[in-house]
Amino acid sequence: MDARHTTDKSKLPSRYVTEGPDRAPHRSYLYAMGLTREQIHQPLIGVASCWNEAAPCNISLMRQAQAVKKGVASAGGTPREFCTITVTDGIAMGHRGMRASLPSREVIADSVELTMRGHAYDALVGLAGCDKSLPGMMMAMVRLNVPSVFIYGGSILPGTFRGQPVTIQDLFEAVGKHSVGAMSDDDLEELEQVACPSAGACGAQFTANTMATVSEAIGLALPYSAGAPAPYEIRDRFCATAGEMVMELLAKNIRPRDIVTRKALENAATVVAASGGSTNAALHLPAIAHECGISFDLFDVAEIFKRTPYIADLKPGGRYVAKDLFEVGGIPLLMKTLLDGGYLHGDCLTVTGRTIAENLAKVAWNANQDVVRPSSQPITATGGVVGLKGNLAPEGAIVKVAGMPPEKQSFAGPARVFDNEEACFEAVKNRTYKEGEVLVIRYEGPRGGPGMREMLATTAALYGQGMGDKVALITDGRFSGATRGFCIGHVGPEAAVGGPIGLLQDGDLIRIDAIQGTLSVDLSDEELAQRRAAWQPRANDSTSGYLWKYAQTVGPAVTGAVTHPGGAQETLSYADI
Length: 577
Hints:
Cofactor: [2Fe-2S] cluster; Mg(2+)
GO molecular function, one term: 2 iron, 2 sulfur cluster binding
Pfam families: ILV_EDD_C, ILVD_EDD_N
Strand content: 5-15%
Distance between the termini: 18 Å
Shape: globular
Number of domains: 2
Enzyme class: lyase
Oligomer: single chain
Strand order of the largest sheet: 7-8-12-11-10-9-13-14
C-alpha cells in the first residue's frame, strides 16, 4: 500500500476501485467528481436513500442523507450518495398500481446490492421512509453484510379536522361514509386537504412505523432514531450520528449478520405484537431472515405474537400515533418494559456496538403517560397480531386483532367469493353484500396478482359504512397496516397455485377463530379433493415486464414471498470479496 495513505484497505471491497496503478482509470472518475487523493483512499461509504417526489414519506430523505454524509466525512469516510426506487402504498392503493408495491421491496434490495457491488463500497447507511422500502433496505444490508446502519425517514404529523386529530386512515374511511351519504362532497374535500400536513410516513402503527419499530428492536437502527417525526430537526442529529457510527462499525468489523440473529428476529416480532403493528411484518421478517440464511417463517412469527402482551395503545386499533410514542419515551420505552418483563433477549448486539440491555440500561419508566402500558398490565395478554391455520390455510394466515374485544375475535358465515379486489370493492360500494358474510378476495397472492396487493380501500369503505364488524374478509393478498376489523391476509397456499382459497364457492361456511388460531371451511377432505381435481389455473394479464418476471420467481407468503435462494445457499458474502 502507498505509504502516503493511512487507511488499510487490504480487506475492504473498495480496494478493487481505488488501490494500485491498475486502478488509475477508476480513480480518474472519482477525481472528476471533485474528490481529493485523501478522500479516494479513505473507505467509500454508500449512502442509499429511497428519495422521490411520489409521496410525503420519501420527500425528506435527501435532506437527511446530507446529514448522514457529514457524519461519515467527519469520521474519516468518503460518502457516496445514491437513490433507489420507492412505490408508495398510499398512492398505489385501490388500483392496479398496488401490484407494484411488494415487488418494489425486491427491486430496492436488488438495486442497492447492485450499486454497492458495482462500485465496491465498503459500508452502507440506508435511509427509507415507506412500507416496502424499510424492509427492502434492511434486506440489502444483511444480504451484503457490510457494516451498515439503518435510518428511518420519520413519520408524518397528525392532521387536524375541525379540532380533532386525523390520519390517512380517517380519510380512507371517509370514502366509505361518503359512499352511503354520511359525508358530503365538501366535507370530504376539506378532510383530504388537512389529513397529511407534513413530510413523513403514515403516522399510526401501520406498516412503515411497524417496520421502523422493528429497525430498532432488531438492532440495525440507533436507539430513538426511528421514532422522531420527519419534520423534527433532531432527525439530522440522528443521521449525522449514523454516519459516524457506520465508521465505528467498519473499524470493529461488526456486520449486519452479527446483529440480525434468530434472537434479534424474535425481538423484532415481539415489538410488532406489543405495539399492535402491521400484519405485513409477518411477511417482511421472514424475508429479512431469509437473507441471513435463518429459517424464520410466518408460523415462527405467529408463535412469538401468541406469547407477547399487547401494550402500546397505537392507532389503528388504539388512540395514539408515532409522534405521541416518541414524545413519551420512544421505542426504547416500549422495549424497556418488554425487557423487564422477560419478553426480549437483552444480549443481542446492535449498531451501537452494545447490546439491547446495555442500550436500555438508563431508560426510565415514564409513569406520566398512557401510550405504553407496563408489560405486567397489558391491554390484552397476547399480541395484537395473530397467526391462523386450518384446512383453508395449511400454510397459514395472519390477522390483526389489536383493539378488538375478545367476543369479536371469532366469526362464522357463508363465503361470498371475488376473484379480484375491484369486484369486491364494487360490491361494497354498491352495498350488494350482506351482513354476516365472509368476503373472499382471491387470486391476489404473490404469484396470482401478481404482487400480493393490499386491500385498504375495501376494508376502510366497510368501516365507513358502519359494517366493519358485521362482515369478515379473507384474502391471499394483504391488508394494509391501517386496516381495522376481522380481515385475514396472507392465506396460503394462494389461489393461483391451487390452494384451498381457490376452491371456495359462494355459500361455503367459513369459520374464523383468532383466539384458537384457526381458519377453516366446513368441507370434507373428499369434497376439497374433488374440487381440486376440477380446478384449472387462472391466467392473469401480467404476461411481460417486471410483474411477469416477479411471478416466475416469487415464493409463498409463509416464507416471506422471496425471490432468490437466500443466505443459506451463499458461498461468498459480498463483504468478503
